[in-house]
Amino acid sequence: MVNLPPQTTRSKNKQAGLNPHATTYLVKLTENNQIYESTLVQRVSPPTSVSELMQRVEAIAGTTLGELAAQFQFKSPEDLLKEKGWPGQLIEHVLGASAGSKPVPDFEQIGVELKTLPISYQGKPLETTYVSIVPLTELTGLTWQQSSVKKKLSHVLWLPILAERDIAPVDRTIGTGFLWQPSFEQEAQLRRDWEEQIELIALGRIQEISGHLGEVMQIRPKAANSKVLTDAIGPDGGLIKTLPRGFYLKTQFTQSILLDHFSN
DNA sequence: TATTGATCATAC
DNA sequence: GTATGATCAATA
């Protein structure tokens, strides 16, 4: 695969009605020196300020995922049976989030984490919100302040998407995104759930943990399938193999975030 | 029908 | 396997 120099510039993108923050590249897939496919890809520059990010967020409010996908030559799956992460990946791309699976905020320069939030016709969250992997070993001395949950949720850009299952992914409408930081009480709730469940894990009682625990944040499996195993502390203090877990925000919690924001 | 447990794509 | 992005689907 050959990555050629930019074929269109920022200004040309503007003329063509494309996103002025995006630079378009022509990528040619070659084999035996023969070009068998050419495709345009775009790279959107990371926002350099919160206000720049929010301008982009406002610009996509009211559009559909399909419209954005077409505009950015992004694939559009017919359903999300596979590619479950498509909405988030598309929005990341459009807003200029740093790509990859690095353990840093989506908008690294400004320390903001992006979370798409599927909502119903009534505006209620349809799914829990994944936060981060749950550490299962080497927990001694780990504090809430150091936790990935605390870091991830310190500054979040919530982007509601009308995502009822009877709406095709491409026809799902993007709502009004907004920034959020946990209130004192919200952080206290998160901290209690984190400490209570991490404590159980540290005590070797991970097998007692299910999605039922946690007032606003639960622990559930987070793996390719139920056969994936990782190390955890066992009942006798030694290491055992168990399913990898993740922290998820319960829908009532994210709903309260929406209500706090949109009812004022 | 709300919730918990299971799963899918991708990058490394 | 770990970690990113999440939603699907069986169960209670």
TrEMBL record:
It holds the Pfam family MutH. SMART domains: MutH. Keywords: Cytoplasm, DNA damage, DNA repair, Endonuclease, Hydrolase, Nuclease. InterPro entries: DNA_mismatch_repair_MutH, DNA_rep_MutH/RE_typeII_Sau3AI, DNA_rep_MutH/T2_RE_sf, Restrct_endonuc-II-like. Residues 95-193 form the DNA mismatch repair MutH/Type II restriction enzyme Sau3AI domain. It is found in: Cytoplasm. One of its GO terms (molecular function) is DNA binding. One of its GO terms (biological process) is mismatch repair. GO terms for cellular component: cytoplasm. The keyword DNA repair applies. Sequence-specific endonuclease that cleaves unmethylated GATC sequences. It is involved in DNA mismatch repair. HAMAP family: MutH. NCBIfam families: mutH_TIGR, PRK05070.1. Belongs to the MutH family. This is DNA mismatch repair protein MutH. The gene is mutH.
